[in-house]
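Escalation from tier 1.

The customer reports that the assembly of two entities below gives different structure tokens on two consecutive runs. Tier 1 could not reproduce it. I'm attaching the input and our single run for tier 2 to review.
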Amino acid sequence: MFYKLIKLFEDLKNTLKMDSNSLPHFLDVVASSGSVLNLEERTALQTSLVILKKNYKFQRVLFWGKILGLQQDYFVAQGRGEDEMRDRKSLYSLNCLDWLLLPSVTDAMVEEVSKAAQGRFTGDPSFVYELQVSKQEERVFKVTEEKRLAVTVHQIDEEASVVPRGAFIRSPSGPVQINRSFSGLSESEAKRLENFMHFRESKDLPREKQQKAEWTPAIDFLDVLSEDIPKGSWSLQLECASRVCVLRSLLWLGLTFYHVPMTPQHGYVYIGLGMKNLDLPFML
Amino acid sequence: MEADSSEADSTAASFKAFLQKSSSRSDRNLYDHLVLLLVKIMDERPHDAVDVLEDMSLELKRALFKDRQSSLREHVTPSAGDMLAEHQLLLFKQEQDFNHEDPTVETGFPNVNETAFYLEQAGVGLGREETQRILLALKLLVESQGLPRCRLWGKILGTESSYIIAEAEYAEGDGEQSADEDLQEEEEEEESGTQESETDPVPRSTYTHPPMVPKEAVGTGANRCFYFVCTEPGLPWVKLPPVSPAQITAARSICKAFTGRLDSPVLSYPPFPGNEANYLRAQIARISAGTQVSPSGFYQAVEEEGEEEEETGRDQCQVNPEFEGVSSFEMAQSLSSWVHHIQHILKQGRCTWVNPAMKVEDDSIEEAEAGEKDERPDEPEPEYGPPLLTNLSQDAELFHTPPWSLRLSSTITPQHAVAVLRSNLWPGAFAFSNGKRFENIYVGWGLKYTGQGYSPCVPPPPQQEYPSGPEVTEMVDPSVEEEEEMRMALEEQQEVQQESEEEEEDEEDDN
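Tier 1 run:
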């Protein structure tokens, strides 16, 4: 029994998409959006992510992305546990070597950050954003950049994370897991936005989702990208000589998702300023 | 014993017959399906077969269904990927004239791979294969257009597809021809006739267009270079038209994403004069003027004898042959070791200021009107911008963010690192320098950083349509009492007139 469990974990490791094993290939594919990691960062990541996985006992560790600050950049990694959706922990680093755990996000934290934090990330995790509400009141809203980072990572995951349909299944007992028999979307399926979903707790009413012909509750438990408001906030293109399907978000500029059709390879990364694009309605 | 075994046999035989019974919905039976499934498992030996059994079974059923296609021949429609692959094959099949040309002579197209190597250290790039394809596409461009020199300007991402942009400078002869064309276009636009009807003349509008700022001549200012654009390396390059000041000022006040099709309209307020090709060209001009930088000393001012240095500044610079290079460590220390080598675009939309009220040649009625306008006291004031080759420490800060972020590409091995300059006003504009070499590139969405958010400008107040005059001014209708008074006054007047007429008749009668 124990032996079987170990074999299961080994298998999971082999079918991983975005962890340190497949990092170089995945970065090459995402490069069409313009941002790459330089060689030093890549090699440092490969080493430190392995150590991170061992220390925190994650099932798998993904390179989540990079948030560009004025003086320094933050590298963010995410570790996944048993339940892919609920056991998620994010960590950040300034040099790809020393990783620090980001605080878990609460509603109160989100509110604080949305009030006080403005402008670009500076690059100093202990920097404090201050906002005085009005001259009469002495109340000052303060929030550290670390909290802002945690909230930003959480918001990007909520609003802009993408997985192809069928890549994850929700087992009847609840936890969300990788679908090991996912063999990729076909070329025609990869051109349609309905086959991509947000990797977050579903917000749509279940009634609306059952209208598709091939609705399967184990697979279709996530929100579909084509229902996002405003319509047109995703740009779906074929890159790398039309071999790879790339989705770019216009709401969070810098989020790139890739999927190679007919293979189980997929993943997303965010390399950008870490600011929501509020000009989107004007841009479309 | 024999009876038992024969009973077991008969049970087995009847169960086998049951397994072989064809399903009512499809022509398969369970026995064949199980056989095929077991054969598949035997061949493939998957890990944890018991867990993936259902999926394998489903796949088998699906595969069987596919085999039973009709006997029609398959019509293969070429996908977009296939057609692109054919275009890109041409990139690799370019002819080489090794007999005529010496391959070591400097060619027009840049060594993009070398630049990409340094840019990768800076954290920007397009991936190695894509860079290679771009290199070949640039070579094709240089040879087909006969350009003396060209440069990869960058990539602008769009919603449906992206643009790869190459920059080239004008050779000396080309500039004049297109300048003539531009003048003709301007004349056509200026002719506007007013129609007068023969019946009641419609009140003439006194609105006149604000005078149009003339385009910069090709080869100078914002039109110093021209640009070629393609959506994928391998597809034909399209030349972008030169930019006009009106387009630049309009582009400054809108925030629109690119779609990826050059002919799509740009719907915005204030209305953009042109389509997406013009908008792209305007953004390229703005980005170049704002973010193309070089190490201080690499370019020097063009020295011509007998010319005074005016405040409007130099508009050309040339490569300094005595540039020895600065260490990348020094370059990464302060912003003053970098300078702009492209002219700043003034508020007017041009690089050199021109008074728009002064018309050029032309004998037309509008000239006389323009002459009158010159005499008006509120002449526009000349605008000045920072002269060419100002260093970056003088760039203004916007939205509480410094305009540039400067650092070394590596902290672990600073001896071999390059200095990386990132623009905060135009996210996506990068420059690197390792002391002797430098390069600029832009990879991004083509939009300026708007701070808190973009807010469109307010439409102007409605204008006076008609000159005020008695026919058009509103008047209060007279009230009943006033009408009565007028009527009484009129009647009295008539009576007086009648009396005087009667008196005259009497007098005539008398005479």
